[in-house]
Amino acid sequence: MLKAADALACAGYRVRVVSVNNTPWATATDAALNAKRPWSWSVVDYGAETGRALRRKTGARFRLMRAIAKLIGPSRVPLAVAIRAYSRAHDEIVREVMAAPADFVYGGSTGALAAVAESARRLGVPYGIDFEDWHSGEHGGPGSVLTNALVARVERYVIHGAAFATAGSPMIADAYAEMYGVRPLPIHNTFSIVPDGTREQADGPLRLYWFSQTLGPGRGLEDVIRAVGEAGVAAELHMRARPAPGYLESLHRLRAAVAPQLELVLLDLLVPDEMVKASQSYDAGLACEEPEVLNRRICLTNKAFTYLAAGVPVILSRTPAQARLESDLGDAAFGYDCGDVKGLARVLTQLATDAPLRRRARIAARAAAERRWHWEHPDDRGALLAAVGAAL
Q1: N or C: which end of the chain has fewer CB within 10 A?
Q2: pLDDT tens string 221-230
Q3: Residue 32 domain flag
Q4: Would you say residue 196 lies in a domain?
Q5: 168-205 pLDDT, tens per residue?
Q6: Is 197 among the domain residues?
Q7: Cα 212 from Cα 205, distance rounded (Å)
Q8: Are 94 and 116 in contact (CB under 8 A)?
């Protein structure tokens, strides 16, 4: 959505962004981003410190709607209840979107899907929907059956009325086509290429990089630590994320047990504009998705495309979507079967012991980004601008 707002503003549209604030660490990041943008910005704030009253209101409504949906059943509950049992701030987002005139509404992320459709209907304008993930197949754990069923109701409601829909990968687009008979336009979460400001790495530990918003289980990091131990190579694993309670300590315990030669480094979060450049100094970036959740099997995360835009090769697990990407990237990608620690160890041994291989992989990563995997490509930013233009 950030890249979409920037692209539309640069193309001459007058853009107003509506977002929510419910996480304290993101408040300063949002402000820093907005200070550099040409578009206006409205916030629905239900943060624990900055929007306490609205947090209590939306929380009470959300819990009530979920209780009703669970009692009646997600497929039988009225759509209005299903929407509010899935999106905590639906009504507030709709009101904020309608606070100013608009000719078109485009939006995504889980809690905003129905708000995009309802606000556009009430404004009397067309809308576009972005399915960054396969939302009705992205939740796992307690309550996931109810949540996935609720979002399926929402997806069906929004997709058929949209002027167009976009999706974060071709396989996500295929999943929506099979489920609802409408195939979204795949627009990848690619990034602008940054100039190559790195120097040839001196001898030393293999430097691996991984990032996300949250550092927690289910992201393949345990396999990385075990593979470093299996390979017996000196390595550093740099992780940029906010740790879930107790999780970083569990990684340190695993490291001490199986890979004492590995150094774990926790990095501070950065604003999105700095993420590609921050990746440049590493030997390889990690996209070690685990396949238990359906969405993880068919999505292409922003990690791989961030590394490529930085000219850094990718180590990726062979989920169906990432296996297809691996075949396109050639020497820029090093794949291993999901859960295959020994296979990942062989990859790490190759990279740690073969400096010419690392050099070729870096060159191939930059070439792949320049050839196809950058945001300015006609099939990504260009496709979005064309879809909006046609809808208007």
Answers
A1: C
A2: 999 999 999 9
A3: yes
A4: no
A5: 999 999 999 999 999 999 999 999 999 886 655 657 89
A6: no
A7: 23
A8: no
Residues 249 and 347 in one domain: yes
Please give the residue range of the domain that contains residue 214.
206-371
Q: What is the mean pLDDT of the chain?
A: 95
- In tens, the pLDDT along 235-261 reads 999 999 999 999 999 999 999 999 999
Euclidean distance between CA atoms 83 and 77, whole angstroms: 10
Rounded average pLDDT over 18-46: 87
Q: What's the rounded Cα separation, in Å, for the pair 271 and 283?
A: 22
pLDDT of residue 202: 56
DSSP string, 179-247: HHS--PEE-----PPPP----PPPSSSEEEEEEEEEE-SSSSHHHHHHHHHHHT--EEEEEEEEEPTTH
The residues, any chain, with a CB within 8 Å of residue 30's CB and separated by 6 or more, are: 19, 21, 41, 43
pLDDT of 32 above 90: no
Angle at 172 between CA 314 and CA 392, to 5 degrees: 110
**E strand intervals along the chain:** 16-21, 40-45, 105-108, 127-131, 164-167, 185-186, 206-215, 235-243, 262-267, 284-287, 314-317, 333-336
Can you tell me the mean pLDDT for 56-76? 97
Q: Point out which residues pair with 20 in neighbouring strands.
A: 44
> What is the b/e burial string over 76-102, where b = at least 16 CB atoms within 10 angstroms of the residue's CB?
ebeeebbbbbbbbbbbbbbebbbeeeb
Domain count, the chain: 2
